[in-house]
Specification:
This is DUF1631 domain-containing protein. By secondary structure, this protein is mostly helical. It has 4 domains: 8-105 and 117-218, no CATH class; 263-311 and 318-469 and 746-766, no CATH class; 498-650, no CATH class; 664-741, SH3 type barrels. 59% of the residues lie in helices and 4% in strands. It has helices spanning 19-56, 61-97, 120-139, 141-154, 169-181, 187-200, 206-218, 276-293, 320-335, 338-341, 348-361, 373-391, 397-404, 407-416, 419-422, 427-442, 449-465, 471-523, 530-551, 556-571, 577-599, 606-624, 628-633, 643-647, 664-673, 720-728, 743-759, and strands at 316-317, 369-370, 681-684, 691-698, 704-708, 714-719, 732-734. The protein has a 5-stranded antiparallel β-sheet. A hairpin with a 6-residue loop joins β3 (681-684) and β4. The longest helix has 53 residues, at 471-523. The two termini are 69 Å apart.
Length: 767
């Protein structure tokens, strides 16, 4: 293609955004920067856990060291990486505002002499970026179509194209790739960072695009734009069928509160929507339906609606200031003698009654004033969340009691900022989730009781200091997470020590099993005197075990020790004249080898070894003199095996299959257990209350599973067959994965299911 065929740059591309749109686009720019900053922070918050998990599963020490080094390097470089990423995003948005978007270069102008083969690492990174970008484009097709059209209008009518949209997935992912290009991380570490970026950023872009579109539409940029997929026919004149819930969207206005989607309770699915905006919208629809039916009682947890505590014929409503002031008085009341209050849970119904009392106390017409429907719904929803907390089987009672006293300040948060229900990274929501998760993991007895004192301190700070500034929750979350991090390190250290001890026992047990097999071959089909048989099966077996551990089963030392065992067994068999002469010739060397083997055990004193060897020689003489009755009288009390204490509760030998017929269900469970990951939680009902233990290690030698408690202490060891049989009998079960989800997510999903069943006419017992 010649230069004269190349079209000149469009003058539109160099013109800035029209002044009348400047403030609007700046607002979109700030919205995007804030959203991406939050999401990127989530990426780096997950890095330590992801790399630590990879390190635990590393195939060798060198790879494990790579992951641990990367953990330190990421922590050190995080400020620089975040700063550079934000600069790249900000630069792209600034270029768009100033009309400096780059033009796409024609492929024909590439200098073929300068092309080089793409490196393997670069190719892998390109694939990772391309895949995550394509997934966002497919998932957010409607929102991106609308955003492209609106940005084209802002760009003086010039279409941007998918790769030049400054808010698009390509720009967001490329900025992260450019950020990693400044680092020295190997591809293996970069791949983990890309996966986290995909999970924490790319998969959470839809709310951003929805908010950007709404902001632009509200600002007059194509407010009536309709999305029509390519090839879609115009709608026919007949009335369309009601759309499915998955095909409807919930948009976010400027205050962050979702606008309710245009569907009724009968449209809602039984299962809660996965999208948090849709979930909150569905909850609002269900609450509105209950209000329309006149239901005032039996909410989630069998508590009453706040409407039940007020007048039924009121004609006026409380102002927002009146409600806030009533909550402030209630919060000050809670702060009084708080240490005493924290000993007992805060009942939801009692708090609603107290709130109504404060509302009436500050009202000029207490008998003719009620809450607005929206405020009543928020109060009921927060109440149901705290009812869920008080009923949560995951949490220890002490933690439930402590968290229940956050009810009043969280009511204030929810009424001030509805994003508490829709934004996973809302500071108050994050703090509540973090405290609940810590309570589940570490809220037991013993030294971890200090966690409860820390939770008390956090609750006291919230009740005494929260006046509307959400930054308080961020500050407290940072302090609490630092405390939990130190606690987690202690627990992990304890668990690693338990695992190391288990691995040591496993190696010892495997070595002993190898020694037992060797002794069994020596003594097979031989009628040995009791003294010699006991010596071989106990003392000499222990000696062989230590030799395997020290030198290995292929060493000359092992081979010689096995020969010594064979010679000893041979020496107490009736021999002919030639055999007796040979025994006489090797006896001193044989006794010296036996002495050396016994000395390494540490359980024999020198006098004990001398007496034992004398008895063995006497036994040899008695057998060769054809006096077996004398040999039978020789009995030496052998020292207790030093391996017994080292092997612990697993016993001294491997559990051999006993030929017991296993049910098909047990066989299936054994297969499933063999694929479980470490860190999986089980519930054992052999105690009251049932205890939850974590699968920490599996022995390939014994096929035993080791479980630790929330403190990292080893608590139970279960052979795989026994574990499967107990699961079949219902005495052991896997903790459902949804129970490991954040508290607020579990609470809102459970509330949705209960309200949906109430609304559909089923009783709570059917949930």
């Amino acid at each position: 293609m010649s230069n004269k065929d190349t079209p000149p740059p469009s003058p539109i591309a160099s013109r800035v955004i029209q002044p009348r749109f400047g403030e609007l686009v700046q607002a979109c720019r700030q919205l995007a920067m804030n959203h991406l900053a939050e999401l990127l922070g989530n990426v780096f918050a997950q890095v330590d856990d992801a790399l630590f998990e990879c390190a635990e599963k590393a195939e060798n020490n060198q790879v494990q060291a790579l992951f641990f080094d990367a953990m330190r390097e990421v922590r050190r470089e995080r400020p620089n990486l975040e700063r550079f990423y934000h600069q790249r995003i900000a630069q792209g948005l600034s270029d768009f505002l100033e009309g400096k978007l780059p033009l796409t270069e024609p492929l024909e102008e590439l200098d073929m002499d300068q092309l080089t083969l793409v490196g393997n690492d670069e190719y892998e990174e390109t694939l990772l970026v391309t895949n995550m970008v394509n997934q966002v484009r497919a998932h957010c097709a409607q929102q991106l179509f609308a955003l492209d059209q609106r940005l084209a209008l802002l760009n003086n009518g010039s279409k941007l194209g998918e790769d030049r949209n400054p808010f698009g997935p390509q720009a967001i992912a490329q900025a992260f790739r450019d950020t990693l290009a400044r680092s020295v991380f190997p591809l293996r570490i970069k791949t983990i960072l890309y996966v986290l970026f995909d999970q924490q950023v790319m998969q959470h872009l839809q709310p951003l695009y929805e908010q950007l579109n709404k902001r632009l539409a509200d600002g007059g940029v194509l407010p009536n734009l309709k999305y029509r997929p390519q090839g879609q026919r115009p709608a026919s004149s007949h009335t369309p069928r009601p759309a499915k819930i998955a095909e409807k969207s919930t948009t976010m206005p400027d205050d962050g509160a979702p606008v309710l989607p245009p569907y009724s309770a009968s449209d809602l699915p039984d299962m809660p929507p996965g999208d948090r905006n849709a979930l909150f919208g569905g909850l609002a629809v269900l609450l509105a339906e209950r209000r329309r039916r006149g239901d005032k009682a039996t909410l989630f947890g069998n508590t009453q609606s706040i409407v039940s505590f007020g007048p039924t014929t009121a004609t006026t409503t409380y102002s927002a200031n009146e409600l806030l002031e009533a909550l402030n008085r209630l919060q000050r009341e809670s702060a009084h003698e708080l240490a005493q209050r924290l000993r007992q849970p805060q009942p939801v119904d009692a708090l609603k009654a107290d709130l109504q009392r404060h509302l009436e106390a500050g009202s000029a017409q207490p008998k003719n004033t009620r809450l607005t429907d929206q405020e009543a719904d928020v109060i009921d929803l927060v109440g149901m969340v705290f009812d869920f907390i008080l009923d949560d089987e995951n949490l220890p009672d002490s933690c439930k009691t402590t968290l229940s006293h956050l009810h009043t300040p969280f009511l204030k948060v929810a009424l001030l900022d509805k994003q508490l229900f829709t934004q996973h990274h809302h500071p108050a929501r994050k703090l509540l989730n973090a405290m609940a998760q810590a309570g589940v993991l570490y809220g037991g007895e013993g030294e971890e009781r200090a966690l409860l004192a820390k939770m008390h301190w956090v609750v006291e700070r919230v009740i005494q200091d929260f006046v509307g500034d959400l930054s308080l929750f961020d500050s407290l979350l940072g302090d609490f997470n630092e405390y939990v991090s130190n606690l987690r390190q202690k627990v992990e250290l304890r668990e690693r020590r338990a695992m190391e001890a288990a691995r040591g026992r496993d190696r010892l047990l495997a070595a002993r099993e190898h020694a037992l097999d060797a002794i069994a071959k020596v003594t097979q089909d031989l009628d040995l005197p009791e003294l010699v048989r006991n010596f071989l099966e106990m003392s000499w077996c222990d000696a062989l075990t230590f030799i395997v551990l020290r030198s290995g089963e292929h060493s000359d030392e092992w081979k010689r020790a096995c020969e010594v065992g064979e010679q000893l067994a041979w020496s107490v068999m009736p021999l002919d004249a030639a055999g007796r002469d040979h025994l006489q010739a090797i006896r001193l060397a044989l006794l010296e080898e036996l002495r050396k083997g016994l000395e390494v055990l540490g359980g024999y004193h020198e006098d004990g070894i001398r007496r034992l060897l004398q008895d063995l020689v006497a036994c040899q003489h008695a057998i060769q003199a054809q006096q077996p009755q004398i040999a039978a009288q020789l009995k030496q009390e052998l020292p207790e095996s030093p391996l017994g204490a080292m092997l612990g509760a697993e016993g001294h030998t491997l559990v051999k299959p006993n030929g017991e017929a296993l049910s098909e269900r047990v066989r299936v469970l054994m297969k499933e257990l063999s694929h479980l990951e470490f860190g999986t939680w089980f519930e054992f009902s052999d105690t009251t209350p049932a205890r939850r233990l974590k699968l920490s290690w599996f022995s390939p030698t014994t096929r035993n599973y080791m479980f630790v408690d929330h403190t990292g202490q080893r608590v139970a060891v279960k052979p795989i067959v026994q574990l499967a049989q107990e699961m079949e009998a219902g005495r052991v079960r896997l903790v459902p994965t949804e129970q490991s989800a954040p508290l607020m997510d579990r609470a809102l999903s459970a509330i949705y299911r209960v309200l949906q069943r109430f609304t559909s006419g089923r009783s709570p017992a059917q949930t």
